[in-house]
Amino acid sequence: MNTGRQFSPEFVERLVAGDMQAFSDLVDQTSGSIYGLGLRMLGNAQDAEDVLQETFLKAHKALPNFEKRSSINTWLYRIATNEALMLLRKRKAEIRFDLESKEEEEPEGEIEIVDWCCLPEMEFLSEETRVLLNQAALKLTPALRMVFLLRDVQGFSTQEAAEILQINEDAVKTRLVRARTKLREELSGYFRERLRGQVMNG
Amino acid sequence: MGEHGHCKEHLQQFSDYIDGELAPEICAQLEEHLQECDDCRIVLNTLQKTIDLYHVPGEEETLPEGVRSRLFARLKLETRAGDSPRE
Predict the structure, then answer these.
(1) Which of A24, A191, B41, B50 suits A52 as a labelling partner, its CA being 20 to 30 A distant?
(2) Are residues A141 and A82 in the same domain?
């Protein structure tokens, strides 16, 4: 659960009433995560910054009409995910390459059985591993990547992710298991080599 | 070993198991199976480890230098138009 970002009803009232200090606090408390989501979704800092700025500009405009049915946090993420997906669509159109349809139809390959959990912790913390994690996530289709980022990177619940993306909870679960499976396969291939290296180095 | 077909069939269950969303009776069955199947145990453990590696605690997400100031500059510029009522 994304419990770190719950806002009191009084705070939400101030936001809706146009209190700039409250809005500034909201920006400070949520902008880091929203920037992180953009960065992992788009894969570069400039696009992440564009998503960040557009999200808060749109949020500021829309706040007076905020209906308190959903939480401010999921509402804000709904704007951010739309912005990120819109920009991604624009980028894809620019390079004339439809990742979505190709990857969705890709048949699942063989399953890797490599026990790499036993690798020393420093293997997981290395810069090389960090880069690999980012690259592997960027290989997912946008639909799978977005669900994975919301659920497993940012810690939203299934219900919250469904609300943010306006899809049903079963769709969240299905996409999540596919994303997790693909990432586990990628990581298994990589860490298999690391394990081999370890054996060879004694 | 070598026959991994059944591990694949369990993938949805592993995912639900990790999230604590598996029905109790299915959970018990799966745990029983895990005790005798090394392959499935490896798949489950590496799946869990994959998720752990990606998780970023919210408080660790900070804006790079410059991004925050540019964000506030743009917000101030475009909100100064006076479209927001003050309390």
Answers:
(1) B50
(2) no
Give A108-163 pLDDT, tens digit per residue.
667 888 999 989 999 999 999 999 999 999 999 999 999 999 999 999 999 999 99
Q: How many angstroms separate the CA atoms of A44 and A72, rounded?
A: 26
Domain end: A48, A63, A95, which one? A95
Q: Are residues A148 and A178 in the same domain?
A: yes
A-chain CB neighbours of B42 within 8 Å are 113-115
| Domain tally, chain A | 2
pTM value surpassing 0.90: no
Domain carrying residue A134: 104-200
Test mutation, A24, A28, A31, A47, chain B, max B CBs within 10 A: A31
**Among A2, A35, A152, whose Cβ lies nearest the Cβ of B51?**
A152
Task: Extract the runs of DSSP E, i.e. beta strands, from chain A.
Answer: none
Category of A110 on φ-ψ map: left (φ > 0), alpha (ψ -120 to 50) or beta: beta
**Does one domain contain both A122 and A188?**
yes
Amino acid code (one letter) for B82: G
Residues of chain A numbered 82-121 and touching chain B (CB < 8 Å) = 108, 110-111, 113-117
What pLDDT digit, counting tens, does each position of A11-63 carry? 999 999 999 999 999 999 999 999 999 999 999 999 999 999 999 999 999 99
Q: End of a domain among A95, A117, A146?
A: A95
